[in-house]
């Protein structure tokens, strides 16, 4: 007599789970497909911080497709509401660091007291808090000639293959600061 019950044998498990109508199979297939797409985008176009696409997929995709669509729409709604709230705060507070800090504390206090259970409300609070915190951080300085020269000399001596990545990082950092500055100026003009 076989000590392993029939329901727990590999053959039975594979037959039951590797079917198109199996919930675990369809969920795993969707996650794998999205991860493959994000990894392709990340590698092919060298998108910086594309790992957040993977994290968002884990947070949003649910076993049932209907639940995933609902959660994704709630995430988008919450993010948009949070971004609009941040823009309103930035216009009203005129980027005063003391007032922004007070607003961040008050918003986080309200979030803690309310303890929202709805996903879109949580995303609104998280988005506005993250944007306020990011706006209070000082942008990095544009890379100086000496900084670039040090990086190039150190990299070419140790690992010349990393030279393009090092230069790319310095260029992206300077470019990101310029983009943030232009975005802030554009938003100020629009509002």
Could you explain how this protein is built, in words?
By secondary structure, the protein is mainly alpha-helical. It has 8 helices and no strands. Helix 4 runs parallel beside helix 6 and helix 7 packs antiparallel against helix 8. It is flat.
| Total beta strand runs | 0
Q: How is the biggest beta sheet arranged?
A: none
Strand content: under 5%
Mean model confidence by pLDDT: 79
Q: What is the H/E order?
A: HHHHHHHH
Low-confidence stretches: none
Cα shape: flat
Strand pairing plus helix content: what structural class?
Answer: mainly alpha
Head-to-tail CA distance between termini: 78 Å
Radius of gyration: 24 Å
Estimate percent helicity: over 70%
Number of helical elements: 8
Can you lay out the helices and strands and say which pair or pack?
Blueprint: H1 10-17, H2 23-44, H3 51-60, H4 65-93, H5 97-114, H6 119-136, H7 145-158, H8 163-190
Question: Concise description?
Answer:
The chain has 191 residues and is mainly alpha-helical. The protein is built from eight helices and no strands. It has helices at residues 10-17, 23-44, 51-60, 65-93, 97-114, 119-136, 145-158, 163-190.
Which descriptors would you attach to this protein?
0% strand, 191 residues, mainly alpha
